Amino acid sequence: MMALQAIRSSPPTDPRLAKDWKVVGYLTALDVILRKGQNKINLKEAKEAFYGVVAQSIASPEQYIAIVRGTSGIVEWIEDAEFVQIPHPVAGRVEEGFWGIYSSMRLRTNATAPAQPVVDGICKLIGNQASLTVVGHSLGSAVATYLTFDLATPLGNRLSA
Q1: What's the pLDDT band for 9 if we cut at 50, 70, 90?
Q2: Which strand (E) or helix (H) includes residue 6?
Q3: Residues whose CB is less than 8 angstroms from the CB of residue 83 and which lie 6 or more positions away in sequence, other chains included
Q4: CA angle 23, 15, 51 (to 5 degrees)
Q5: Model confidence, pTM
Q6: Nearest CA among 137, 139, 158, 161 for reference residue 149
Q7: What does the pLDDT look like over 112-130, one tens digit per residue?
Q8: What whole-number distance in Å separates Cα of residue 67 and Cα of residue 138?
């Protein structure tokens, strides 16, 4: 099963995070070389990969964080280099490689749970009262920026980055 493999192959939770935060969701996306738009991905070549977590504060359960990791592996380095600008669906232009990864991003609440669209999944997961901070490193910062943009309307002032 693709999701189980992706989550099992993820690194263990960093001990600095584990003592204060509980992982409640996994961010996954499709890694594929030279994707040309979400509708043209060859699913036989695409691999679901672990990209990060959504965690809930143990001390303040109404606080969540979405953490998106940086580039890992040759396929993602090639995707990083897909720097042609393409139209964003709402505003401006985006880098094709980073956008391709983000547009395939999903949320799983556990290894066997069905993948949910990332924005809808996060909104359901944190509910109507909680706040969310979105962070990312390297490739993850670009993806986190797109995620923050898409979460801004449903979460409003409960969102920070």
Answers
A1: very low
A2: helix 2-8
A3: 95, 96, 97
A4: 50
A5: 0.85
A6: 161
A7: 888 999 999 999 999 999 9
A8: 12
